[in-house]
Amino acid sequence: MKLEELLKEIGAKQVCGPTDLDIREVHFDSRKIGQGDLFVALRGVNVDGHLYIEKAMEAGAVAVVCEQLPEQLHAGLCYVSVADSAFALGNILSAFFGYPSRKLKLVGVTGTNGKTTTATLLYELVRFMGKKAGLLSTVCNYVDGKQYPSTHTTPDPLELNQYLRLMVEAGCEYCFMEVSSHAIHQKRIAGLDFDGAIFSNITHDHLDYHKTFKAYIEAKKAFFDNLKKDAFALTNADDKNGRMMLQNTAACKYTYSCRTLADFNARAIEKQLDGTLLQLDGQEVWTKFTGDFNAYNLLAVYATACLLGLEKEEILRCMSMLVPVSGRFETLLSPEGVVAIVDYAHTPDAIENVLSTIKGLKGKNNKVITVVGAGGDRDKTKRPEMAEAACRWSDRIILTSDNPRSEEPTAIIADMQAGVREEYRRNVLAIPDRREAIRTALLLASKGDIVLVAGKGHENYQEIKGVKHHFDDKEVVREIFGL
């Protein structure tokens, strides 16, 4: 594609050199540059791409987009300065791949908890209805039925547009994607044409990156602020920050609620360990999901499907066929009658949601035993809060490692123990080895007791000192149960 075509929507401040150049590929990593490519210099969290402009030119780049022009300009090459390289990159890549998001009904899901479940269930729902769709999520990416591994909640702009292009080529009509606060703040979604946005909730998380809770909220809100006029903005009215998301959006505004009057409402009529009977806008439907948090996820799915113009009766019929996402409240039963639940809960709010659900489902004389850790090199302030939430809702707690990364598991556990009040201490064990922690919890359990293994869910690895080791909570539980 000609460079001049790629520069149409980026608001260039200054252009030095020819723009009738043929661009072979677009990259923001100088190590991937080849002859005839365009290099976009980004100011990243750890690396400033402006330091690699000369290297990119030596590797064959014929043009560069940057926020600050280099002192030395080479003849015959093109240098473009912009106010924001990240914003420019998204728009350039969207143009380079033929504006694929404009050819799909693209819906983004943002919030602290529930993103993966909501996006995945929307993907499954429309496929049950005979339509082609794509999914971009924490667990896995799909182009129609073809599976691709996932490395980030929201991919980088190059990957994003490559996936969207593949979806268009595969004949997909819809794409559902998780939109993380990091992706919004880093403008990874710049240039994408969203037809709808969903807000699930916002609680304590990612303060290692955003620094303040206010900045975290503002990152989420920016997604809604930038929606087009004919898109829909759907928010959880029961979250105290839910309506704030809609304050400055030009999109059509809608609310959903399980507690108050809203555009879309749900109520749990009957709750069991293997499912919930829900009333969705006056219609009853049996779902294979447990917990109030899943009632919210399912309501968001139902509301979104309605807003996309799908037929209500068909939506309800297909919702009864949906099954839980991998590592989200997955239940395993031992031959002796001990119930183990594996869940991705890794924030104080998520742990409380899962445990309050379990508490309401367990037998009167049965125990709740929780195995929980916290990730290393991430938001440290939530660690004591996670432990405190686990203590309030559990009879026994085992603090262990999650993905310690570069930190010592014992140091992470010590941070968590700071949230354990004196009255709970006799119920808390610290076992850094996660396999041994799970084994101990299951051995402490009797028939009818429920063991929650929290934090990793779908993940099949532990990251220790920069190395990923295979580790799957479900595999460990099955092994100990003899399943």
UniProtKB/TrEMBL annotation:
SUPFAM superfamilies, A to Z: MurD-like peptide ligases, catalytic domain, MurD-like peptide ligases, peptide-binding domain, MurE/MurF N-terminal domain
Binding residues annotated for meso-2,6-diaminopimelate, in chain numbering: R378, D402, N403, P404, R405, G455, E459
Domain Mur ligase central, chain residue ranges per copy: 109-304
Domain of life (superkingdom): Bacteria
Cofactor requirement: Mg(2+)
Family: Belongs to the MurCDEF family. MurE subfamily.
InterPro entries: Mur-like_cat_sf, Mur_ligase_C, Mur_ligase_C_dom_sf, Mur_ligase_cen, Mur_ligase_N, MurE/MurF_N, UDP-N-AcMur-Glu-dNH2Pim_ligase
Function: Catalyzes the addition of meso-diaminopimelic acid to the nucleotide precursor UDP-N-acetylmuramoyl-L-alanyl-D-glutamate (UMAG) in the biosynthesis of bacterial cell-wall peptidoglycan.
Location of the Mur ligase N-terminal catalytic domain: 23-87
Location(s), subcellular: Cytoplasm
Organism of origin: Odoribacter laneus YIT 12061
Name the record gives this protein: UDP-N-acetylmuramoyl-L-alanyl-D-glutamate--2,6-diaminopimelate ligase
Binding site for UDP-N-acetyl-alpha-D-muramoyl-L-alanyl-D-glutamate: S30, T153, T154, S180, Q186, R188
Short sequence motif named Meso-diaminopimelate recognition motif, residue ranges: 402-405
Cellular component, GO, one term: cytoplasm
Matching NCBIfam families: murE, PRK00139.1-4
Reactions the enzyme catalyzes: UDP-N-acetyl-alpha-D-muramoyl-L-alanyl-D-glutamate + meso-2,6-diaminopimelate + ATP = UDP-N-acetyl-alpha-D-muramoyl-L-alanyl-gamma-D-glutamyl-meso-2,6-diaminopimelate + ADP + phosphate + H(+)
Main enzyme class: ligase
Pathway: Cell wall biogenesis; peptidoglycan biosynthesis
Record-annotated Mur ligase C-terminal domain positions: 327-457
One family name in Pfam for this protein: Mur_ligase_C
Binding residues annotated for ATP, in chain numbering: G111, T112, N113, G114, K115, T116, T117
Record-level Gene Ontology MF annotations: ATP binding; magnesium ion binding; UDP-N-acetylmuramoylalanyl-D-glutamate-2,6-diaminopimelate ligase activity
Residue list for modification N6-carboxylysine: K220
Keywords associated with the record: ATP-binding, Cell cycle, Cell division, Cell shape, Cell wall biogenesis/degradation, Cytoplasm, Ligase, Magnesium, Nucleotide-binding, Peptidoglycan synthesis
